[in-house]
Amino acid sequence: xxxxxxxxxxxxxxxxxxxxxxxxxxxxxxxxxxxxxxxxxxxxxxxxxxxxxxxxxxxxxxxxxxxxxxxxxxxxxxxxxxxxxxxxxxxxxxxxxxxxxxxxxxxxxxxxxxxxxxxxxxxxxxxxxxxxxxxxxxxxxxxxxxxxxxxxxxxxxxxxxxxxxxxxxxxxxxxxxxxxxxxxxxxxxxxxxxxxxxxxxxxxxxxxxxxxxxxxxxxxxxxxxxxxxxxxxxxxxxxxxxxxxxxxxxxxxxxxxxxxxxxxxxxxxxxxxxxxxxxxxxxxxxxxxxxxxxxxxxxxxxxxxxxxxxxxxxxxxxxxxxxxxxxxxxxxxxxxxxxxxxxxxxxxxxxxxxxxxxxxxxxxxxxxxxxxxxxxxxxxxxxxxxxxxxxxxxxxxxxxxxxxxxxxxxxxxxxxxxxxxxxxxxxxxxxxxxxxxxxxxxxxxxxxxxxxxxxxxxxxxxxxxxxxxxxxxxxxxxxxxxxxxxxxxxxxxxxxxxxxxxxxxxxxxxxxxxxxxxxxxxxxxxxxxxxxxxxxxxxxxxxxxxxxxxxxxxxxxxxxxxxxxxxxxxxxxxxxxxxxxxxxxxxxxxx
Length: 591
Known about the structure:
Layout: H1 17-42, H2 48-79, H3 84-97, H4 101-112, H5 117-122, H6 125-129, H7 131-139, H8 147-159, H9 161-173, E1 176-181, E2 184-189, H10 190-195, H11 202-215, H12 220-241, H13 246-253, H14 258-285, H15 310-324, H16 326-337, E3 341-342, E4 354-358, E5 363-367, H17 374-392, H18 410-425, H19 429-464, H20 471-486, H21 499-502, H22 516-534, H23 539-548, H24 555-560, H25 569-589
Helix pairs in contact: 1-2, 1-3, 1-4, 2-3, 4-8, 9-12, 14-19, 14-25, 15-16, 15-17, 15-18, 16-17, 17-18, 18-19, 18-22, 19-20, 19-22, 19-25, 22-25
């Protein structure tokens, strides 16, 4: 087993004849697809049902071919952003893919003109499988532009937001921080310096924070330009399509109602005083008087900090996944045994962690920046949860595997919870405090910090409507958002004005407000975990069934399969109460 992931199942490299042939054939595949649409729309010999069936098959074939190439390129670049050849091929592929939008739009226009689409679907076994997708096409048609306009937007994106995203990723992944190490000034990758926030050494945490903030002066203007360009494009597109706002566009594309978001945020705002109690207590433990300084957000509160090597983390996760579901444990073992995981930080590798689904071959790949803390263990479990979600969709068509953003974090948070609860049960008193604090630290990130990110993105978009937003303005908006979310829980003089630089979630014109789904995922998972505790025997099967339908139901209807009404504040409040119990336990243990 390797600590680097293996992509040979896709291609063996950029000189692989299969890769070069598939890339060269993209033009022909797209032309064939476009010709198929021309034939379907002009034919009088085919009935409407036949046309839809042929279209679905053609779309699956197209996405399978392109998805394999696109995934290989993005995964390769994520661990080696300095690979100029990969960057070149990625631009080539993006330019080719932009041609797809126009024929797809013409076919979707046809679908929306079918007089009684619902009856047609009801009388066809094959179309019934794609009822949700076809219905969504019709529901969202009013936001679709002409085929020519859609084609133009898609082509311009390759030299617009997509190019700016690649530029920003290159700046961050190659960014180094000057810091003193072993009595010498050395340059370290940003990801390695960020991991120092978890060090038991308070001087190192502060030093790393100060060095990190100082280092951004080299790249802040470039990243600000990227953010302005990407959100500027999103504003233009949402206006052209007739959405009332970018947030409105996100909710519609997420198949989630504004009532659900309002109910969740209402409960979230009610919970903020409890999180501030936790932060102030942590601040007192660490010897601070004016609230917690940013550099101690992840600081351990106990001198007894248990480290987990990667091998120990693997064994721990597989063991406790097995206590929940043998299928989950078997999936984790398969991912590890087959080198689906890229484990450690290295130059050119992007920060953070993610799981990428390889839908065309029913596999996943997981990127970590592992650092031996309990947080790294839970992050590993989190990403394995995403992979398990992908596996639960293996019996679904390519077109039914794309689930909305708010549901993306459900399985990952469940897996985090399993591991954290297990760690608590096997720990002594000091270790329990450490694990509990780690759990609360993570919850604070997913609730309070995510709320600050939501407020920041909302305020940035509003500022961007009036023109270019400068670096100083962006930093001010970031600090204001942190103050509103964290209140007196943090030291207002030691915040993080640069949190917008390396958080990748801000840098997509087609995936805006990718922050509230994390809060949604945590709270939805807490609610589901409570149901698991009530019925451990039968829950896993029901849970897997829930995950399997996430690509073909609205967010509210997916929750309804478990008798949950997401539009009611009571559900969200009950989930917050589980976290509140942990906060009260922490306050009691540290009184």
